[in-house]
Design a protein that fits this description.
alpha/beta; globular
Length: 257
């Protein structure tokens, strides 16, 4: 009797970063085809998230699901959009938990962009939402000219901001740069292959049931959920530097969405 093939569990890869950092172009680079829409008209669309299944990405049979997340701006500048983005992030993490968890975080930043939000975005995903339990790597886009030189000149700045990643890739997503494009594609794929967790990490964020929602409206929240809310608010205030009022609003949106 032929043996049954063991189930193949795809790696769930989350790509995050500020609006316009080049996340969609990065996904097209990884896939080596245009599967994600790019351009200025995508600003509002990227406030949500999109899943891309890449079953044939690697020759060894390793399968990947790439999640293109919402763009996240500085909370002090765009507090309403930030709150909206957090609500979408909560839906994403619950979706990922339902799929088994997250294997890798890919932090996408762009050369020449203001780095004021670099630290807050890193803290939000890696330290607050995932509690440093998921491996994280960085991809720097728009490097048609300097490539690896950018990392040599800037990695100390990242370390001073306490942004620590397992690995990095300095890339171009322009196909016109043929040799550099191919090298960039292989560099990012190697990051995924090397650093994606063998066992996906669950976020522990569960959908709030109707009974819990009803009790919360009458000032009797579930103790476990309230503990998560308080811990998340503390992290948003202390680690991300968010104002108390906004941190409370964001924490409630995340835990009780």
């Amino acid at each position: 009797m032929a043996k049954k093939k063991s189930a193949v569990h795809a790696k769930n890869i989350v790509i995050f970063g500020a609006m316009g950092a080049g996340k969609s172009s990065l996904i097209n680079l990884i896939a080596d085809k245009n599967i994600a829409k790019t351009g200025p008209d995508q600003k509002r669309c990227t406030l949500t998230w999109t899943k891309y299944e890449l079953p044939d990405l690697f020759d060894d049979g390793m399968q990947c699901n790439i999640f293109d997340t919402m763009g996240i701006e500085n909370p002090e500048i765009e507090s309403k959009e930030y709150h909206r983005s957090i609500k979408n992030a909560s839906h994403l993490l619950r979706k990922l938990d339902a799929c088994g968890g997250t294997s890798l975080l890919v932090y996408c930043i762009q050369k020449g962009r203001n780095n004021s939000a670099w630290r807050s975005n890193y803290q939000l995903f890696h330290e607050v939402l995932y509690q440093r339990r998921v491996p994280i790597v960085m991809v720097v886009t728009r490097l048609e000219d300097v490539m690896e030189e950018w990392w040599t000149n800037n990695h100390s700045l990242l370390e001073e901001s306490h942004i620590i990643v397992k690995g990095h890739a300095c890339v171009t997503t322009l196909k016109e740069e043929d040799v550099k494009y191919k090298a960039s594609r292989e560099a990012v794929r190697e990051l995924i292959r090397q650093y994606a967790a063998v066992t996906p990490v669950p976020g522990g964020w569960k959908q709030e049931g109707r009974v819990k929602a009803f009790m919360r409206r009458f000032k009797q929240p579930d103790p476990e959920d309230k503990e998560k809310e308080d811990k998340l608010q503390e992290g948003l205030e202390g680690q991300c530097g968010m104002e108390k009022k906004l941190a409370s609003k964001v924490a409630k949106a995340f835990v009780y969405t």
